[in-house]
Amino acid sequence: MICPNCGWDNLPGNEDCDNCKHDLTALDRPVGWNRVETSLMEDVVQQLHQQLHLHAPHTVQPNTTIEQAMQVLLQNNIGAVLVVDETGKLQGILSERDLLKKVAGIEESFASLPVSRFMTPNPETVAYHDHLAFALHKMDVGGYRHLPVVHQGKPVGIISVRDMLRYITKLCEQV
Q: What distance in Å separates the CA atoms of residue 135 and residue 142, rounded to the nearest whole number?
C-alpha cells in the first residue's frame, strides 16, 4: 500500500505508514465501482423505505391463530408478518416459508393454533441507519427473504428481497 503522503511502499493492511506514520486506514475501505455498488455501500435502509414509499409492517400478536395470520398475508399480498408482544416489541416473524416448512403437511388442524408455535423467534434485524449492503449481506448469509427494520426493539418496517430488487432496478434506470 503506497502512502499518499510520502510515497512509501507499506505492507498491505498497515494502519499507519511505516515511514511517516500517516493514517492509512481510509485506503483499506472498499469503494463502489459503479452506481449500484456505491449506492449499496453508502445508502441506508431509511433511504430505501423513503424512495419505495414502503408502509409500516403488518403485525400480529403471538396468540393470533395461523388462520388469522394467513388472512393478513393474503389480504395484503405480503410474504411475512411480524409478531409483536403487547408493548409492540418484536418477538418473531412468520413467513410463507414457515408455513410451508412447519405447518403444511405436518399439522392436521393448524388453523386455530397460535403463530408463536410456528414463527421464527428473535429474527435478524436491521436499523434505519444500517447500510443497504449490510442488510443485503444479512439476507444472503441467512437465506432470508424478509428482514425486519427495528427502532428500540419495535418494528418500523420490513425489507423484502423484492424491495431490494426494485431499488436496484431504479438505480439502473437512472444511469
A: 11
Q: Is the pLDDT of residue 21 over 90?
A: yes
Can you tell me the distance from the alpha carbon of 1 to that of 14, in angstroms, rounded to the nearest whole number?
8
How many C-beta atoms lie closer than 10 Å to residue 37's C-beta?
Answer: 14
Q: Edge-to-edge, what's the strand order for the sheet holding 59-60?
A: 59-60, 80-84, 90-95, 120-121
The model's pTM is: 0.80
pLDDT tens string 52-62: 888 889 999 99
List Cβ neighbours of 1 (8 Å cut-off, separation of 6 or more): 9, 10, 11, 12, 13, 14, 24, 27, 28
Cell output for 75: 389480504
